[in-house]
Amino acid sequence: MKRFVIVWASLALMPVTASAVCAIEPLEPELEAAETVYVGTVVRSTLVSSLDQLRSTTTPHERRAEIRHTVESEIVFKGDPSTVGAVLSRGKYNDPKAGRRVTFPELTALMPGDTILVVADASGPARYGLCTASRLWDRDTEAQVRAFFRGSPDAPESPAPSPGRK
């Protein structure tokens, strides 16, 4: 048992790649600074690079595939969603014919049907990932966003909770 604790403590103190770890930042400052904040549903996701470009990469880092998501806005808290245009995320590409596989633990999956909070600080595509203010629209995120925009004259009314929702 003592050996297990020593090994665990050693691993916990090892340096970690900065791109793989992100401290959770408070959402409120991001909402304040953003030009556009809305909730929308992903209706389409496409690769930005071609498969040929991804296959020809020489390093594992280059196998991160940028994905462009079309998001249909449903609830607007601030700004104009049409100025955002799209949401960009990153995925990984593994050539099925290659012997090596890469994993990027910091990548988060986003696909059509997902409902997300989009937080954009300028015109052009917003970013979605582990370390971005844009995130899945869940109960915790909804509570934070509605509390932040409660006093705003443009904030939409909160819907009545559905019967099965707590």
What does this structure look like?
It is a single chain. The chain has 166 residues and is α+β, with helices and mostly antiparallel strands. The protein has a single domain, classed as OB fold (Dihydrolipoamide Acetyltransferase, E2P) (Beta Barrel). 21% of the residues lie in helices and 26% in strands. The chain contains 4 helices and 6 strands. Strands 5-3-2-1-4-6 form a 6-stranded mixed β-sheet, with no helix packed on it. A hairpin with an 8-residue loop joins β2 and β3. The C terminus is likely disordered.
Structural descriptors:
166 residues, alpha+beta, OB fold (Dihydrolipoamide Acetyltransferase, E2P), 6-stranded mixed sheet, 4 helices, 6 strands, disordered C terminus
